[in-house]
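Sample intake sheet
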Amino acid sequence: MSAPLAAARSAAVFVLAFLLPFFLLLAQQDIGQPTTSGDRGADGFKALQEPHYLTGTVTMEDGSLPPALVVIEAVCNGTARQLTTTDAKGRFSIDLEGIKTCEIRAQLGGYMSESIDLVSQLRRMFDNPNVGTMKLRKIGPGEGSSLSMTALKAPKDARKALERGFDLARKEKPKEAEGEFRKAVEIFPDYAPAWYELGRLQAAGQKPDEARKSFAQAIAADSKYVPPYMPLLEIAVREMKWREAADVADKLAKLDPSNLQSHFYGAVAHYSLGEFDAGEVSGREALKRDTQHRFPQIEPVLAAILMEKGDLAGAAECLRDYLKFAPKADNAERAQQQLAQLEKMIAQKK
């Protein structure tokens, strides 16, 4: 292997290395920006008056209730994190701790709302902590659906058990909720939404093996039902089961092409498997979907892939974009060093 190519291989490993903690902790870590004395303010009275919770409602574009519980996410520095879910009437409440400088949005498989910038809302929130209504819109064509046809076939007793499970989960009674979800799938084993909700509860309870089985059961019952794919993908990524992650990511991307994270995780998984062509396709699709540059971590992943393919100029461009859109990232200095090394290698080849 030539010296430039050897350096490129080393550089690619370096880029992936400083991103891996993000991949593995995405669904667990608190990604809110750190609180500083400036954030709290010198005026103790002001801190006491600041709202600690926000409320709001989610509806479909036509004003109707969502067909399932909706995930409320915070997006901070390009990283998305699940905060809570709505109740059956689309209502939600979130704790503002650690997310006051972030954006929030609602997401349901196949649907997403516009983001709400909390910074611009903060002053108004002193008078009214309700952010209003976020409307879900269809986010692109695909073979999948956020609704499962199995729900239409479920017997009345199974549907009632699922509804009781929802209610108990909202009341923070996970053990009782799990019992109801299990009852629903015992009555109707092909009840995909019930398997999905059971898996979500198990994942939240740090039972990844059980959650994986439940999500797999949901997919087996209805392979076009989108919701279980993302949590199953996140489990595979955290456990670095790259073949499983790549397969699930590719399937999710086909079912819901507008799902940016499926393309991102697909790029990571294919890179880790040495499947650089497939990784580049996933990475470029992720960039295409990230029109507002809220997920700058895509750039270093694509840079690593392009380095492996010998496209040093393309890799350097990706790192420049990363530094442009995430100049204050924790790894910005290391990324700058990596870029300098790449530019030196490119100059030597001329």
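Comment: The chain has a mean pLDDT of 80. Strands lie at 53-60, 71-76, 79-85, 91-95, 103-108, 111-112, 116-117, 130-138.
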